[in-house]
Amino acid sequence: MPADPFTQSLVDTLLSPDNPFRGRIHVVASASSTQDLARKSPQTPSVWAAEIQTAGRGRQGHLWVSDRPLGLWCSLVLEPAEPQLPILSILGSLAAADAVRALTQCETSLKWPNDLLHKNRKLAGLLVETVARPGLLPLAILGLGLNLSQQAGDFPRDLKTTAVSLRQASGHFVPRAQMMAAFLDSLTHRLTQTPSEILEDFRAHWGQAGRTVRIRLGDQELSAVAERVDEAGHLHLRLADGSTRILASGEVDFPA
């Protein structure tokens, strides 16, 4: 694999001159999770990235395999506008798709509320956690795990048919610093959009529309047709008995 230097200064040189994350990027060799680094950050906005994570995590407590320097593992400390907070994972997934497309022309689809897919295999996932502040809106910690350079043998056996890297999907090697800069530039643009604009773009790339999906609600697992995502970012499902169920992102998990 080609050399892949990944430093704060290199990312800074690749960012647009007016990007608010310039000078606020931190790269460490190893972390349990970049979410934990970001949660302790004194800077807003700021970016925390690690070459490897020893306990990377995704939504609903799932493990994110990131114990090798083959992807972009990072977390951002953000102070989003109140209307953007409920759809921040959607906004982030759009920014990741923008960056992938800009660097490789690889088209992806979006899985509500936080995954980036290529041919129905997971390329990236996002995680939003919040930090309460008395009398203020909470800070948001937006985590991104984006598979970049793995080959088939690099994924654990249980992920070989469900995960994919950008190298596999596009045939291109993309350095981590270049991908981070592209993502941060795209995210900066997306944060200027209204929720309506964000959701319109999401629906145009949403791969589940009209399809039957399996969901898990606590101990209950069921199948339903994904009908639409509304203006609040909630998922509308049509159940087998014809009834509708509306779900917020924090309520639902998608079993493997």
Name the CATH superfamily assignment of the largest domain: Bira Bifunctional Protein, Domain 2
Largest sheet: number of strands, sense, barrel closure: 7 strands, mixed
Helix content: 10-25%
Give me the side-by-side strand order of the main sheet.
Answer: 1-2-3-7-6-5-4
Find the count of extended strands (DSSP E, 2+ residues). Answer: 11
H/E series, N to C? HEHEEHEEEEHHHEEEE
CATH class of the largest domain: Alpha Beta
Number of contiguous helices: 6
Strand content: 25-35%
Instruction: Note the gap between the termini.
Output: 30 Å
Overall pLDDT confidence: 93
What is the name of the CATH architecture of the largest domain?
Answer: 2-Layer Sandwich
Structural class: alpha+beta
Overall geometry: globular
Rg, Å, rounded: 18 Å
Which consecutive residue ranges, at least 5 long each, have pLDDT under 50?
none
Number of domains: 2
The CATH topology of the largest domain comes to: BirA Bifunctional Protein, domain 2
Topology, please?
Blueprint: H1 8-14, E1 25-31, H2 34-39, E2 46-53, E3 71-78, H3 88-104, E4 109-111, E5 115-118, E6 121-133, E7 136-147, H4 166-170, H5 176-190, H6 195-205, E8 212-217, E9 220-229, E10 235-238, E11 244-247
Parallel strand pairs: 1-2
Antiparallel strand pairs: 2-3, 3-7, 4-5, 5-6, 6-7, 8-9, 9-10, 10-11
